[in-house]
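S.,

Sequence below, as promised.
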Amino acid sequence: MIYIEYLVLAILVVYLSVRLSYYVDCLDKKTNLSGAFIGGVMLAAVTSLPELFTSLTAVLALDQPDLVQGNVLGSNIFNLCVIGGLMLFTSKRYQQATLSNSHSKTLWYGIVMYACVFIAIFYPYELGVGFLKVNLMSVLILIVYLVNVKFMKHDESGDNAEDVYISLTVKQIALRFIIFSVALVVVSILLTQVTDKIANELQLGATVAGAIFLGVATSLPELSASINLVRIGNFNASFGNIVGSNLFNFIILCFADVLYVKGGIYVNEPQVLNLLGFGAFSMLATLGVIYGKKHRGAVLLCSVLILVSYVLSIALSM
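The prediction came back faster than expected:
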């Protein structure tokens, strides 16, 4: 029964997230914000809600900080697998697509964040007063994210969206967005609890369980939204959703670090180091997909490397 519960909750996460991404897209049509900002910040934040609330549940209700690291780092690698997989089947169409300049910058900022997590593990330095403490690297990660958002907000290099009539008013869109967001939060919390039970039943470490079960399940929104966006030819929004979600996921570590008062959120474990190393490598391979856009062979090679990186990260973490 527990596996059926997991499957049902995962399906609900997909459905709710797809609806939320639709309403964000409606807001996109009603505003003058850049496409990079809409896909890389707004849509990314929406599809990352499962990672956020499952991680907060892991530290506040389950006392499992390892589950948070596995969830975030595992989700990031899986997210990039979405790009890798899509490129294998749509590389010809991708060569003709237009991408915002900020996507490559976002990936570089992501690599900086990987370095911050590595430093936080081996050279922890905490700031704070009384019981409220936070790792210095968590603060730096937040600053890097805000800097990236600032650049994305003004990047209109990849905008080519067509005008589409939206019958809903902004107020109606916002109301629906709030309702589906609340539902997604509830389902995400339940998904975390089920994942913890599966980890205990299979005798998996919390980090591995987070990387496999939570990492995949909470990445389903990015997967669903990105496949649909590529299907309609919007590679720019698809890339923005993935790379933006990865950066937002690192912010989850910051929140968890502040809320977990029993110790530090950054745990030194072999599984975590595997996810860090392969995650950074996947980021570099994704940069290859962008920089080698005009060369189909380079795109295909980098896509395969992304997929291999994910398989190895899981295999070596077991």
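The first strand starts at residue 126 and ends at 129.

Coffee later?
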